[in-house]
Amino acid sequence: MQRRTALTTIGGVTTSVVAGCLTPMRGDSDDQNAKSSTDDNIGAGIWPQVAHDAQNTSHTPDTRGPRDGASIAWTSLGDRPVYPPVVDDALYFTEAWTDGTAFALASTDGTEQWSNTELPPMRWAPALYEDLLLVITRQQGNVVRLHALDTATGNQAWVREDGITASSGERPPIGPTVADRSVYLGSNRGIIACEAATGAIEWTATLGKHVVDTEDGPTWRTDWATPAVTAERAFTFDMNDSYQQTREVYAVNRSTGDREWTRELTVGDGWFLKGHVVAGADYVFVSALKPHVSVGFDDSEWSGTEKLFALEAESGAVVWEWELPRKTLTPPAYADGTLYVGEWYPDADTGRLHALVASDGSHRWTYRTNTGAVRSPTVAGDTVYINQGKELAAVATADGTRRWQLEVGARTGSLVIIGDTAYVQTNPGHNYDSQLLAIRES
After folding, report:
1. In this structure, is the dihedral angle defined by the CA atoms of residues 346, 347, 350 and 355, taken in order, positive or negative?
2. How far is CA 250 from CA 206, 427, 432, in A?
3. What's the CA gap between 29 and 282, in Å, rounded?
4. Quick one: which of 261, 289, 354, 417 could link to 316 by a disulfide (CB 3.0–4.6 Å)?
5. Hey, is 95 helix, strand or coil?
6. Lowest mean per-residue pLDDT among 93-102, 207-216, 255-264, 413-422
7. Is the bond preceding 172 in cis, omega lying within 30 degrees of 0?
8. Burial grade of 3 (CB within 10 A; 0-12, 13-18, 19 or more)
9. Between β-strands 112-116 and 102-106, what pairing exists: parallel, antiparallel or unpaired?
10. Residue 29 dihedral angles phi and psi, to the nearest 5°
11. Cβ neighbours around 35 below 10 Å, total
């Protein structure tokens, strides 16, 4: 089902009018797609993995963040390419595509607490399980290992090699998914589930061939998305766009790894899936991209470059789809029955943040900025934190009004929000030196 809305603009915020009526705001009490529950409980002072939780929602409900103003409290790093941190009492990093270093910084001022330089190169962000830092490494000969480091010292507690493979991990920054007492890895053929405490393999879900024949010859099929995990299922897809056939979403049973369903999304030639699955209670959300349109080289009547799909978590049936006017650069955030989708208009270098009702795809509101692409929406409490060009901004979840914006002078990565602090790295990517910024309420 495609959903089309007529838009009315009020100041810098656009709300939707459907059949002449303003789309109502729903409270949490009547939300029909509340955050799906895994067996784990993430404390307010912990950010254990990429996108915060096992469902990849980028939503931390019990954290306030710098809500009413912001300034840079301190900076650190500046000379290392790093992946996004995970956090408990400290911030833990892995260096990107280097000789192999994991390290911890103090959350109070960014000083280094320990560093382990004895590891092979890394292509993944880390994840936390209790007092273990889980790290994926890859050596020459494509030897992939899952390591567990003691978070207090950085010393290796154990390492698992047999049966471990990994996605190439090039984009977006990916990492292990921790849910309850298990860790789920995007492998070179699907998903691997391991005991988080020991690394022992629980099951392996083989969802596709490792090598696929194309018109140009064989190509590796190794770029599987970070799994999204709910209480019942794990979801992923292949995002290797080199053979332009990445249109299938997979759901496997969380207990056994058996495939429950496969859904091929209806998109044209040249489209491929991107980012990772974002999971709610009843639905999962996936984006597909047509890349040649993304730089504006398209004269078709529809100038959009991307589609967002909502699938039933139980069956994989497509519930709704939305054709975006332009392109997203990062996966959406999900909180309390609402999807927050950042967008980029490359011809004007402007951005939008859309709030959509997760159950039917209708608009709640749209926030506009003229300072560049809107990336990495992250929800903490009643606020959405975003990157917009070389700025950070905070937007109210209720109506899309901006609470504050802060110039940082560089493109930034995904935000990690703990208490009243937002941590963000500049110049994200494995080819760039990143600086870590701690943003607190001014």
Report:
1. negative
2. 11, 32, 33
3. 16
4. 261
5. strand
6. 207-216
7. yes
8. middle
9. antiparallel
10. -65, -30
11. 19
Cβ count within 10 A of residue 180: 15
| Three-class HEC string of 351-412 | EEEEEEECCCCCEEEEEEECCCCEEEEEEECCEEEEEECCEEEEEECCCCCEEEEEECCCCE
pLDDT at 401 over 50: yes
Burial of 312 (0-12, 13-18, 19+ CB in 10 A): middle
- The answer to whether 75 and 438 have CB atoms below 8 angstroms apart is yes
- Whose CA is closest to 11, among 369, 305, 411, 250? 369
Rounded distance between C-alpha atoms, residue 280 and residue 285, angstroms: 8
Whole-model pTM?
A: 0.88
Residue 55 in this model has a pLDDT that exceeds 50: yes
The stretch 43-55 carries a mean pLDDT of 93
Q: Are 83 and 416 in contact (CB under 8 A)?
A: no
Q: Which residue has the higher pLDDT, 274 or 191?
A: 191
Structure tokens at 382: 């009643």
Nearest to 104 by CA among 147, 146, 149: 149
d(CA 110, CA 78): 12
CA 29 to chain centre: 27
> What is d(CA 33, CA 282) in angstroms, rounded to the nearest whole number?
6
What is d(CA 297, CA 291) in angstroms, rounded to the nearest whole number? Answer: 10
Looking at per-residue confidence, does 26 or 273 come out higher?
273
Contact predicate 305/327, CB 8 Å: yes
Higher pLDDT, 4 or 344: 344
Instruction: Please report, as a single letter, which amino acid is at residue 401.
Output: T
- The share of the chain scoring above pLDDT 70, in percent, equals 84
Structure confidence at residue 137 (pLDDT): 94
Q: Tokens at residue 110, please?
A: 């960014």
Report the C-alpha gap between 50 and 52 in whole angstroms.
Answer: 5
What's the average model confidence in pLDDT over 373-379?
A: 95
Please state which of the ranges 97-111, 243-257, 291-305 shows the lowest mean pLDDT: 291-305
Q: Is 241 helix (H, G, I), strand (E, B) or coil?
A: helix
- Give the position of tokens 């992923």: 236
Cβ 155 vs Cβ 396: under 8 Å: no
The hierarchical CATH code for the domain 6-24+45-440 is 2.130.10.10
For residue 154 the two structure tokens come to 């950085």
**pLDDT score for 272:** 83
